[in-house]
Amino acid sequence: MGAITLIETLMQYFFVVLTAPLYTGILEKLKAMVESRKGPSIFQPYYDLWKLSRKITVIPAGSGIFFRYIPYVLFGIYSLIALIIPVVIPVPIYFTASADFLGGAILFSLAAFMKAAAAMNSGSNYVALGVSRSMSFNFLSEGTLITVFIAVSLLTATNNPYITNAFLASHPLANLSLAHIFSTLAFFMLFFYETGKIPLESSGVQELGMIDEGLNYEYSGKLLAINKWSSYIKQYLLGSVLLNVFLFPWGLFSTYPYFFIDVPVMMAKWLLLILIVLVVETTLAKLRLFRVMDYLATAFTFSILFLIFAEVIP
């Protein structure tokens, strides 16, 4: 049993870390096809990470140790979250007992805070603008994340994400309850914000369209590669929670050797999520910056309604 658990742990961790950039590459390729462009290869994020890792890292004058070392800490935090929540294997693995649903939400919030603190440590005025913009929105996004994770645990009277996943997979009607529908809407809206998707954020040369990407302004070389890789892992973690807890909790196997099938099953689920994101990004225009607050307030309202329907109204 110990050997099988070790195999499950290693498979889940390396699958998350190594394939996380791939989904961004697939999305960008499909967007280019919709826009009648050739577009980059689906492996372009890997090429970018390799290229950045070989470049010289320029450290801004006056920056402190936070700026230099927090990117490694962020990678470690997201690596730990990858071993806590059911993102590939639907049964507990090693390090699962490190935290529950609430602990995972707090780790996401801690990572966001530390990334903002490290960016401010650079001393750049442009980064300060990006941090102030990010912090003005994060109080609603982090509140939504924590509220949803607390409320979803009320469905099974436990904070264990694996038990929650097993309950939803074995009780299909629970996925049609009003409480679960509100939670799905809230987390789906949160996923678009946290991963920097249109209509909320547009990464590129237009600084006014950036929120989270603005925190990377002063990073270069290996540190920028680690930050981008951490963002890819964060996107995979949030997307997998959306898929395995809220949208499609079925299809994952926990017994040897069938749990190896979980890898293609997760890739199929992600392709479906990518198609949904593709439709949204290619049909909606980017919101004006002050409208992002209204968007997050709506998501937070859905999470509160979920909490009310899950606990107050039987």
From TrEMBL:
One Pfam match: NADHdh
GO annotation, cellular component aspect: plasma membrane
Membrane-protein topology: Multi-pass membrane protein
Keyword Transmembrane helix: yes
Protein name in the entry: Formate hydrogenlyase subunit 5
UniProt signal peptide: none
Annotated organism of origin: Thermoplasma volcanium (strain ATCC 51530 / DSM 4299 / JCM 9571 / NBRC 15438 / GSS1)
Alphabetically ordered keywords of this record: Membrane, Transmembrane, Transmembrane helix
InterPro entries: ComplexI_Subunit1, NADH_UbQ_OxRdtase_su1/FPO
Upper lineage: Archaea, Methanobacteriati, Thermoplasmatota, Thermoplasmata, Thermoplasmatales
Primary subcellular site in the record, as a coarse category: membrane
Subcellular location: Membrane
Domain of life of the source: Archaea
Record flagged with keyword Transcription regulation: no
